[in-house]
Specification:
homodimer; alpha/beta; 3 domains; six-stranded mixed β-sheet; 15 helices; elongated; DNA-binding; transcription (chains A, B); DNA-binding (chains A, B); HTH_LacI (chains A, B); transcription regulation (chains A, B)
DNA sequence: TTGAAAGCGCTACCAG
DNA sequence: CTGGTAGCGCTTTCAA
């Protein structure tokens, strides 16, 4: 219908005013109809005219304008860690996302790679999210939390190995993983236990608590067991080096951080003539398929997320009743799966 | 300073007007100072006063209001696929994200799990992104592209095995992976080649083109080689079943889709007494660490992303000069790595 | 049952 | 050098 191509090009993004004009009604009516507002009664004929005009023009409401007017958004922000997430976290996010959507939140992942902590928090705050769920690996300080809160976030929640002062916390306590592995090895009669510490950046966040759990389990066992941290890069050469001096270390078992490092190390040990499990028992973590395919089959610590209340509901509750004391929920359950390697 | 707690709570999110009041200047001046607007000259004293007032109040600008006023955003939207991304895509996204940030774009991942195609596209359009990069696994129809374009997106780009009519395309052509594997096996004298087809939802997007490439390579080789698709679930039982009827299939080699399926199948074949590579050669894809740790070491097809122009620059160019014909760029380079399993 | 108008927070004109 | 002000697209009173 437009006769001026260049004008129609400039005006090409249709607004509710365009819909109103096309339907011969006011912008208010358009808003009522498209939002199914029940407090006001509109004739069916008008409803249809508005709907047809909207779809005819390809009208899509402008989220920014809407939330500006409303004074709040329903955006839940998930700052993406710049480091590779563990598969468990990946699945957690996927589930959280669809659960939140069902509660009518808009979930947005925001990558902050290449920003320092302050810039990143500012960038998040500019989006005025109603809630922020920050995974481990994202540096969130108490003052960062304050910036977010003061910019209108009703709930700030950390997700990771340890809580942060002032925020709610979904804790994936990795200590139980290390403790589970060590208790299993102790029960098998092992007493000199190595703990692999990946040297890859970012994994320290997980490996340190696992080591701490291992140490604690050994100390409280009253067996006199010894824990020996073993730095390892995820490379064959690094594993071969470690294997070469294995006998000198005098270890009878090793918790290999996870199944992949376990596979790497087990192969190097076998190549160096160290018998698994006879001479050295090996335990991984994560219960990946590959552990079942190895020979000997890999013992592992399986991890599961157990939640009393689904995280999405918790977030919804915190958003609706903000201001309570920081909550803390432990999500991670660790369970040892004994196979042939230990 | 506020004496009414409940009022200060409601008004707690500071606006540029609050900053202006605190600094004793107008909102315009605040905007000029905080945006380092150079077309207007402001005294250093005023600048400092404004800056101090802003940080004192914890002022953070409101992105929605800003882009509403500006009439455009610099948001690049990455609809997140609901299925697990291949590691290669994961790295691609991370890199793209930081490159785009360097070009001053805001990158946002939007999870559309649980929405059908139309709803999803509408939801994206509501955010008024300046560009959309849709990975494979996200269903994007020509009419979806039109909705996005008409809502102001300057560039719509697909990323995946095959392009979509009307959008620019970053193509990860999986056919070369299958073709590379088959050519390698043909060169090794193999003629009856199985191709593993994962039965997991979502992988068909990758496995079908790989099969097509394998078929094409066999046909054009003039060797009379035969290609046999082999459905397989990522479970030990499924692999064992396949291995049990292996000899009846009469195959002398197999392209196992990727390294993980290769490990699964190779283990099952070995358990069934089928010698690798003597009786059956095995090739994976992805060049994972685990392939190097298997015995025999796994031959694989390594995949790399080779780009003439970095994707971020391409997007920036398309945003600045919209309206050109759809571009298509092939990103995937496949290269066979021969080890011991073939 | 519908329309007019105010205003969310911000920036960019134009006056002073 | 700084301030007043219009208006981005939308929703929601209040009037008609």
């Amino acid at each position: 219908m437009s006769q001026l191509p260049e004008q129609s090009a400039r005006t090409s993004v249709p607004t509710s005013a365009d819909v109103a004009r096309a339907a011969g009604v006011s912008r208010a009516t358009v808003s009522y109809v498209l939002n199914d507002n029940t407090t006001v009664r509109i004739s069916d004929a008008t409803r249809r005219r508005v709907r047809e005009a909207a779809s005819g023009l390809g009208y899509v409401p402008h989220a920014a304008a809407r939330s500006l007017r409303a004074g709040h958004s329903r955006m839940v922000l998930l700052p993406a860690a710049h480091l590779p997430a563990v598969p468990l976290q990946q699945r957690f996010f996927t589930d959280l996302q669809s659960d939140l959507r069902r509660l009518d939140y808009t979930v947005v992942q925001y990558g902050s790679a290449g920003l320092d902590a302050d810039e990143a928090v500012r960038a998040w705050a500019e989006l005025r999210p109603v809630a922020v769920v920050a995974p481990g690996g994202v540096r969130l300080t108490p003052q960062g939390i304050s910036v977010l809160t003061r910019s209108g976030a009703k709930a700030v929640i950390t997700l990771g190995p340890q809580p942060v002062e002032g925020a709610h916390a979904l804790v994936l306590d990795q200590r139980g993983v290390g403790a589970g592995a060590v208790r299993h090895l102790l029960a098998r009669g092992r007493r000199r236990i190595g703990v692999v510490m990946p040297q890859e950046a970012g994994l320290a966040l997980f490996s340190e608590p696992r080591l701490a759990g291992a140490l604690h389990a050994a100390e409280t066992s009253a067996t006199g067991a010894r824990i020996q941290p073993l730095p390892l890069r995820y490379e064959e050469s690094s594993a071969a080096e470690l294997a070469a001096r294995w006998r000198a270390l005098g270890l009878d078992s090793v918790f290999a951080y996870d199944d992949e490092y376990a596979m790497l190390l087990m192969r190097a040990l076998q190549d160096a003539g160290v018998e698994v499990p006879a001479e050295t028992a090996v335990v991984g973590a994560g219960d990946l398929m590959l552990g079942r395919l190895l020979r000997p089959r890999l013992s592992t610590v399986r991890m599961e997320l157990a939640t009393a209340q689904p995280p999405a509901e918790m977030i919804d509750r915190l958003v609706r009743h903000p201001g309570g004391a920081p909550e803390r929920h432990d999500l991670l359950r660790a369970e040892t799966v004994a196979r042939e390697s230990s």
